[in-house]
């Protein structure tokens, strides 16, 4: 591996064999090796580069695939099993076209990074590596619909087994490309692409070779009909989830531009990692809630959908309260698993209150988003996200962080305010919802889309 590439890889956090999930939060590094003694602020930006990596484009197909969760979930509840395979094929078409349209960003990654103020050497290396992420980029256009398709049939065990098998392959391929052949960052990109294509091929083989006899009846030209409405729902889903995912990335990027940003970035990285770990629980509720609500609405059972939303929200909130108490009680010790630096430990201690409330809010908000996905409210939630996150949260964070000189505390507090407003609005929409009317809307949608030829 070349010296410059090694420095960049260390600075942004090398990809070990265990890094298989493409949407994990920023991971803190216990070592802080970088380019040779760069200034503090650029050095902090080095640790934040992974927020600009090409995989952020993958959030778009990830979000657009949630439209399939709405349609397949409601079709399964309505017992229109044959339409689930048609919907998945429509999703493949839409996401493949989307992937093609986004591909030029991988070729111009260096120019984009330079425009955002990243160091030239780092931008050049990222531009060199980004094109090798294209295979991964296209794999997700097919993988996400397959996962949603199986999830809506309560076949999550298939996704789990495929991921476990791919992880074993990933360990070997990662060792081969990164450690043995020393391909460096290019090897990391190739490894990730290989691993995700392995999952995709495994799930595709399961679906098409008899694993889903009721819902997969083979390829059909029917998939090319009715794409207009499907694209509309997919686009709304993509915007909704992109706005949510990018929100706290902005927090970290803003922190990287503060004075004495190195310690602030280290502390915030630790907090975001802890938050990311805990977020796996409400994200599981997000997926489960979306499927259950969609199933019940598709079956015409509005009361069942309401009950599923209440149970999921309450359970996730109780779990969030547990972690809130845990963080508050261990506020001065939670960072010890990451670092022994007294300065960083003290900084994390000061941020622990905000971390606790972020975890509490994020225990409810994803579940409400799951209700929205199951009900087909993606466009409404997208508008709510724009207003709460980018009209309230970000400006408030900038105001508190810079004008009132509160630094990262102010930025984060302001953005928590945006999340709180969003949660209250989604809660109000859910509480005031006429579930019987939503069941009728779902039934009408299923009839309309299933009749398209």
UniProtKB/TrEMBL annotation:
> In the record, what terms sit under GO molecular function?
antiporter activity; xenobiotic transmembrane transporter activity
**Keyword NAD attached:** no
Q: Which domain of life does the UniProt lineage start with?
A: Eukaryota
How is this protein situated with respect to the membrane?
Multi-pass membrane protein
Biased composition annotated in UniProt, kind: Basic residues: 18-39
Q: What is its main location?
A: membrane
Q: Which Pfam families match?
A: MatE
Query: Transmembrane residues, as ranges?
Result: 92-109, 129-146, 158-177, 183-207, 307-331, 351-374, 381-404, 410-431
Where it sits in the cell: the answer is: Membrane
Region annotated Disordered sits at 1-39
Return the InterPro entries for the record: MATE_euk (IPR045069), MATE_fam (IPR002528)
State a GO cellular component annotated for this protein: membrane
Keyword field contains Nucleotide-binding: no
Q: Name one GO biological process term.
A: xenobiotic detoxification by transmembrane export across the plasma membrane
Q: Which UniProt keywords apply?
A: Membrane, Transmembrane, Transmembrane helix
Q: According to its UniProt record, which protein family does this protein belong to? A: Belongs to the multi antimicrobial extrusion (MATE) (TC 2.A.66.1) family.
Name of the protein described by the UniProt record: Protein DETOXIFICATION
């Amino acid at each position: 591996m070349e010296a410059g590439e090694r420095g960049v890889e260390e600075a942004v956090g090398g990809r070990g064999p265990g890094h298989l999930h493409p949407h994990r939060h920023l991971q803190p590094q216990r070592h802080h090796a970088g380019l040779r003694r760069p200034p503090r602020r650029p050095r902090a930006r080095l640790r934040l580069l992974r927020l600009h990596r090409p995989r952020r484009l993958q959030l778009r197909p990830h979000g657009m695939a949630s439209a399939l969760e709405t349609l397949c979930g409601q079709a399964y509840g309505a017992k229109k099993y044959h339409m689930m395979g048609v919907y998945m094929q429509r999703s493949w078409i839409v996401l493949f076209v989307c992937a093609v349209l986004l591909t030029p960003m991988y070729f111009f990654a260096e120019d984009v990074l330079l425009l955002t103020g990243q160091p030239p050497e780092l931008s050049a290396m990222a531009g060199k590596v980004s094109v090798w992420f294209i295979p991964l980029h296209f794999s997700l256009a097919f993988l996400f619909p397959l996962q949603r398709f199986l999830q809506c049939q309560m076949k999550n065990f298939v996704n789990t087994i495929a991921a476990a098998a791919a992880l074993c392959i990933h360990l070997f391929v990662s060792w081969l490309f990164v450690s043995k052949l020393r391909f460096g960052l290019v090897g990391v990109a190739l490894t990730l692409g290989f691993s995700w294509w392995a999952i995709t091929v495994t799930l595709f083989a399961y679906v098409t070779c008899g694993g889903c006899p009721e819902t997969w009846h083979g390829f059909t030209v029917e998939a090319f009909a009715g794409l207009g409405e499907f694209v509309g729902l997919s686009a709304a889903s993509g915007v909704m989830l992109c706005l949510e995912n990018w929100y706290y990335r902005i927090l970290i990027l803003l922190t990287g531009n503060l004075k004495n940003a190195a310690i602030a970035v280290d502390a915030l990285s630790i907090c975001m990692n802890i938050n990311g770990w805990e977020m796996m629980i409400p994200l599981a509720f997000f997926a489960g809630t979306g499927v259950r609500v969609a199933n019940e609405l598709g079956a015409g059972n509005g009361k069942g959908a309401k009950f599923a939303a209440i149970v999921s929200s309450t359970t996730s909130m109780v779990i969030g309260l547990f972690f809130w108490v845990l963080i508050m009680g261990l506020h001065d010790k939670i960072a010890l698993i990451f670092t022994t630096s007294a300065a960083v430990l003290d900084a994390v201690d000061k941020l622990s209150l905000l971390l606790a409330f972020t975890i509490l809010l994020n225990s409810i908000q994803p579940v409400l988003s799951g209700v929205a996905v199951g009900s087909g409210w993606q466009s409404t939630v997208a508008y709510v996200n724009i207003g709460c996150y980018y009209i309230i949260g970000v400006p408030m964070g900038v105001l508190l962080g810079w004008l009132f000189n509160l630094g990262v505390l102010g930025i984060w507090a302001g953005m928590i305010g945006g999340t709180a407003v969003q949660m209250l609005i989604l809660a109000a929409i859910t509480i005031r919802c006429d579930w019987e009317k939503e069941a009728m809307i779902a039934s009408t949608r299923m009839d309309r889309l299933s009749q398209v030829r």
